[in-house]
Amino acid sequence: MSDFLTVAGSGPSAAFFDLDRTLISGSSAFVLAIQGRKAGMIPTSEFVRDATGAILFKLFGASDDTADEARRRILKAVTGVRQSELQALNTEIVPRLLSKLRPEARRLLDRHRIAGRDTFIVTAAPQEIAEPLALSFGMTAGIGTRSVVEDGVYTGELDGPFCYGEGKVEAISELAKWNGYELDQCFAYSDSVSDLPMLEAVGHPVAVNPDGKLERHARAHGWPIVIFSQQTKSVIRRTAGGVVATGVAAGSFAAGIALGRRTATPRRRWR
After folding, report:
1. Does residue 56 have a pLDDT over 60?
2. For tag attachment on the chain, is the N or C end more exposed, with fewer CB atoms within 10 Å?
3. φ and ψ at residue 214, rounded to 5 degrees
4. Handedness of CA 216, 168, 174, 104 (dihedral sign)
5. Which CATH number fits domain 12-205: 3.40.50.1000, 3.40.50.10860, 3.40.980.20, 3.30.559.10?
6. Is 66 helix (H, G, I), strand (E, B) or coil?
7. pLDDT tens digits, 5-32
8. What is the DSSP code (8-state) at residue 267?
9. What digits encode the pLDDT tens for the residues 140-171?
10. Cα R_g (the chain), whole angstroms
11. Structural domain boundaries of the chain?
12. d(Cα 143, Cα 127) in Å, to the nearest integer?
């Protein structure tokens, strides 16, 4: 019973999850690019360049100029494409990404659902991909980048924020207003420093498999740091200020180890 108390909130809330290296192992960009190339939507030369760029974009974050360029290229790729063609890719994309869902992430999603908390993927990927993928994970919905569609065809214009960096904050803030969530009661999970705005926007940020910059920031601010492996075990590094969110993450695992700072509490095994 005590495990469930750690996930209970005092107000309406949600849990927001980044996709790549957080919910899933590896990169969704590769899967999307491969299927887009097979469907003739992406020429081979652009496929190689964009797939490589997507990984660098994810690993190292982006300046405003790089984010603008990524947004421009994404919109250019779908301009003139029928929405139904992009949606048709889901028959290949969703099963492949579903197979990459980490066991620990699945259990964590289950714990949030048991606590009565809505769960969302928040990703720069198109909404047409994010929504069915989230539903396949058993989540409430997906929050992705929306593009304007006229007569079933993409115009190349954004219909809302580009879901990257500050754009994710704009998206979850709008959702919170509509659904009555209290962001200070919400959880957010990500591996990348590029998601720092989203993590700072909620009351319970959690760094999952963090890059170097995010790990340093999390340690400095006492955020929980959670390491998901591809196996059935995980490691939790527990920092001083992350008791509530760490309790949620720890309770979701069948086995794991909680590690404190060297000056903090001794190691103990979570059960």
Report:
1. no
2. N
3. -70, -40
4. negative
5. 3.40.50.1000
6. helix
7. 355 555 689 999 999 889 998 777 767 7
8. P
9. 999 998 999 999 998 989 998 899 999 999 99
10. 18
11. 12-205
12. 6
Residue 254: partners with Cβ closer than 8 Å, 6 or more residues away:
107, 232, 233
Q: Could you tell me the two tokens for 148? A: 């304007």
Question: What distance in Å separates the CA atoms of residue 89 and residue 124, rounded to the nearest whole number?
Answer: 17
Pairing mode of beta strands 14-17, 118-126: parallel
Q: Which helix (H) or strand (E) holds 78?
A: helix 64-78
pLDDT tens digits for range 185-221: 999 999 999 999 999 999 999 999 999 999 999 999 9
Sheet holding 141-145, edge to edge: 141-145, 118-126, 14-17, 187-190, 204-208, 225-228, 234-237, 256-259, 268-270
* Catalytic site positions: 18, 20
Q: What is the largest CA-CA distance in the chain?
A: 62
The model's pLDDT over 220-262, given as tens digits with 9 standing for 90+, comes to 999 999 998 754 333 444 444 444 444 444 443 322 222 223 2
